[in-house]
Amino acid sequence: MIKGVKICGVSNLGTLKYIINHPYPPQFIGFITNYKKSKRFVEFNALEKLTGLKNNKISYVSVLVDPDDEILEKIKDLNLDYYQLYDVDPERTKLIKKKYNKKIISSIMIQNKADVENYKLYKNISDIILFDGKGYEESIGFDHKLLDNIPNHITKMIAGNIKIDNIPIIKNKDYIIDLSGSLENEDGEKDLEKIDYFLNKIKQYEA
Q1: What is the pLDDT of residue 62?
Q2: 9 and 50 in contact (C-beta within 8 Å)?
């Protein structure tokens, strides 16, 4: 059964309030913290306001691409539970986790079977391993069957062009599902009707 849900790329208070007050809220909400190429990027002042509005049943995730010390110091006191790290090697991941006392989601970009094996570099460091398609601001999918041989004790999150109506295909997997683009309208803004439909639908598949 699906282990949980993350809605990523939340960037305004209205959307956040809707999600955290939903009857079936997600376990995780993600904020794009330092990747300015993303249309979902949140400036620091806005991030302060967003993380100031907290439902303690939901973990807040700072999504960081190769973060430098400046941004890590800037956000260290915000109400964030996890750092989701892209392009961060295992040694620096260890340092970040220890220094800032945050739970870590290590993001592995997947295109082929060989890419999947990189999870072994992080399995003893990270709390969650995110398997994502090879894209940042773009949502690129990959074959989820490539994950079939990963041990069950690894907490797995999957992202990359996941569509709401494809969830039944992976309903029997022990994944945390990470959605962003499929919950947006044509203007690239989060669509509350899609979010409502998704959260109600996913409830029946969660463990």
Answers
A1: 98
A2: no
Burial of residue 158, with CB atoms counted within 10 A of its CB: 0-12 exposed, 13-18 middle, 19 or more buried: buried
Angstrom distance (rounded) from CA 167 to CA 42: 28
Residue-by-residue DSSP string for 71-106? HHHHHTTSS-SEEEEES--HHHHHHHHHHHT-EEEE
Distance CA 37, CA 31 (A): 14
One CATH from 3.30.110.40, 2.40.340.10, 3.20.20.70, 1.20.1090.10 for 4-202: 3.20.20.70
CB atoms within 10 A of CB 18: 16
pTM of the model: 0.93
